[in-house]
Amino acid sequence: MPANILDGKAISASIREEIANEVLELKGEGVTPGLAVILVGDDQASHTYVRNKERACEQLGIYSEVIKLPADVAEEELLGRLHELNADSKINGILVQLPLPKHINEDRVIETIDPAKDVDGFHPINVGRMMTKQEALLPCTPSGILKMVQRTGIDIKGKHVVVIGRSNIVGKPVGQLFLNEDATVTYCHSKTNDLRAYTAQADILIAAVGVAKMIKAEDIKEGAIVIDVGMNRDEHNKLCGDVDYDAVAPKASYITPVPGGVGPMTIAMLMYNTLQATKMAMKQS
User: Fold this and answer.
1) Which residue among the candidates 97, 147, 159, 244 is catalytic per the annotation?
2) Rg of the chain on CA atoms, in Å
3) What GO terms describe the biological role, i.e. biological process, of this protein (predicted)?
């Protein structure tokens, strides 16, 4: 029996509609949420991501600013821009598009952003709050994955979630978010011995490694829920994930497509975080 599709496009569209309605209400109260994105250098993928974010803001009625800086910008100048945005009442969310050029310390940049405006959810204060299940701005891709599973009506409590990948951006936080929802979580990575022994036990498998079609049908158990975070190119230069979709889909109960699965959820959650940051600022004022 073919798997049900976890349709990130459809779920993100309904989230975006809810956000647009809330933004409209806030504007009625004289408040417009604002997002600032800093883009350093000429990385094409980064430019594309930023354009998509600008477009999303426009569609949802969120004010947006894009600050483009040259690749050789001094770290101090970038930090100075962040201090200005931290103090700017028009801006509720700040995002620095990663990766940054090698001469800039990413940690220092992330730590300079006001945690209340950190819509990427990368600031150590937000990470710590997420770990302790306090109110926080959550990282967009992990929270998008959780939201997608929840909105599909899948019960997470007691499920065994296996995460392949331990990056600070996806792997570690996504496991924590599922743990916060009472799942049992196992982390696997490049040094894990006998990976299949773990993946074959997963009720929910989250693949976030960046290796094209690495997960095959024999790596999962019958009826598993498979979430593919990978964005790779296959041997025909076609976009694909970390999961061999055609082979795995017949065995899974739910699966995310690539593209159209996790990707659209990430931008929807960025917009959601911008709205949350705005509401948090209104409470403080």
Assistant:
1) 97
2) 19
3) L-histidine biosynthetic process; methionine biosynthetic process; purine nucleotide biosynthetic process; tetrahydrofolate interconversion
Q: Identify whether the C-beta of residue 250 lies closer than 8 Å to the C-beta of residue 3.
A: yes
Q: Is residue 158 part of an annotated ligand binding site?
A: no
Three-class secondary structure of residue 257 per DSSP = coil
Question: For 29-114, which CATH superfamily applies?
Answer: Leucine Dehydrogenase, chain A, domain 1 (3.40.50.10860)
9 token code pair? 């496009």
For residue 120, indicate whether it is catalytic: yes
Domain 140-263: which CATH number of 3.20.20.70, 3.40.50.1370, 3.40.50.2300, 3.40.50.720: 3.40.50.720
Q: Is 129 annotated as a binding residue?
A: no
| Residue whose C-alpha is closest to residue 267's, from 106, 54, 92 | 54
Helix or strand run (H / E) with residue 34 = strand 34-40
Q: Is 165 annotated as a binding residue?
A: yes
Q: Name the catalytic one among 7, 53, 203, 242.
A: 53
**122 phi/psi in degrees, rounded to 5:** -100, -15
Catalytic residue among 114, 118, 120, 242: 120
Q: How confident is the model at residue 263 (pLDDT cuts 50, 70, 90)?
A: very high
53 in active site: yes
Q: pLDDT digits over 72-89, tens only?
A: 999 999 999 999 999 999
